[in-house]
Structures are given as C-alpha cells and as structure tokens.
Amino acid sequence: METLLQFMKRAWNNFVDLLYPVSCLGCGDNLTPNEEVLCVQCRVKLPVTDLSKTRNSGVALQFAGKVPLDFAYSYLTFSKKGIVQRLIHQIKYKGRKEAGAVLGRWFGYELKEKCEEIAEANLLIGVPLHPVRRRQRGFNQSEWIANGLSEALQIPVNTTALKRTRFEASQTKKGKGARWENVHDVFAVADAEAIRGRRVVLVDDVLTTGATLEACATQLLNAGCASVGILTLAAAR
C-alpha cells in the first residue's frame, strides 16, 4: 500500500511535470510519467542492433587481428541526422547525461537476456576523458552509460583505473589512420591492481573507427587484466 510520503512525492512530481514538462529527446513531444528519455513511439523506432551476433558481427570484426577481445557489442546503429545522432548530441553537448544512463540500462537488460558472455565480466570502465575536457563538459558521458549498464548487469564501475594522459582535439573529422596516431599513446593504466586478473568491459558512446577503444584495450591487457570486452551505445554504419 502506498504510504502518505510516497503519495505526496508522486503528487509533487506530477505537479512539477505539469509546470515543466519533460520532452522526448527524439521528437520533442511531452513525455508521460511512465516514459523516460523517449516516448513510446520513438523508442519503438530505435535502430537496435541484432545482439545475437557477436563473433561475426561488424562490431567484433572491426577489431579482428588488432586486439583480442572477449566480445564487442553495440546497442544502436548510428546514422547521420538520425534519431541516434540526436540522442548522442543531447547527451554530450546539451548536458542530458541522465539519458546516457537510461540508454545504458536498456542496453544492459538486452545484453543480460541475449548475450551469455556478459555474465563473465566483472568490471566496467568508461573510456576516460582528459581532465580539461571533463571540466569543459562537466561529466564523462561514457561513465554515465557505464552506470546504466551497471544498474542492469550488477557489474561495478571503475572510474580511476584508466586515465587519459594527453589532451587532444575532437576526432570527429579524422580518418582511421589519423585517429590511431592521435590516440595510440594517450591512455595509461593508473591503478594496475584494480584491473589485474579482472574481466574488464570498456564502455563508450559511439564506435567509429575503433582506434580509441583499441588503444584503451591494449593498455588494459598489457597491465594484466584477464580479458577485455567492448560495449558501445552506438556504432556508425
């Protein structure tokens, strides 16, 4: 039975929603009290990937012969001017970090149901930002996605074991070769004990060339973790 405090809290939240309605990040319509981030219509339209494919998926094959991975999964397909691009833009540049956590949670429940490899993982690490970039943005979007995954998968998040040692400009317009040159030596393990012998999962927002994740995974494996898996919220076509 609902307590008086719970009733008052729900009534207050409903009142606030009436005054300051929360908008769907997909279409801009007001969300109902039972919706998060996206309205039902936009959530149904999300371009969710086929998580039954792992070893032979485009995501996994992108790292083949470069770095050994336990698995590599992406939740959504990223395309220019599509709904996923709008979501990522809202998360990274409009401060909607809570959307990253919600989408991470949805991703986690899908993984839990469809991907048995995830059961062996025991540590989540978001791809780190340089302190300068973190101060500019106010948060690390990959950590918020990792927090959502953690809630669904019950795997802890570590935010200090891996660090970015050099500030770099945005890589959005760089090709694969340039991206690798830009990042291959900018990550370092700051706490080897925290990852030694652990099955680590790297978390990022969008997989493009894979250079950043490859560089991070290489550092983690060299520092003694048992294995590395990769989870990204989206993957570019």
TrEMBL record:
It comes from the Bacteria. InterPro entries: ComF/GntX_DNA_util-trans, PRTase-like, PRTase_dom. Pfam families: Pribosyltran. CDD domains: PRTases_typeI. Gene3D superfamilies: 3.40.50.2020. Belongs to the ComF/GntX family. This is ComF family protein.
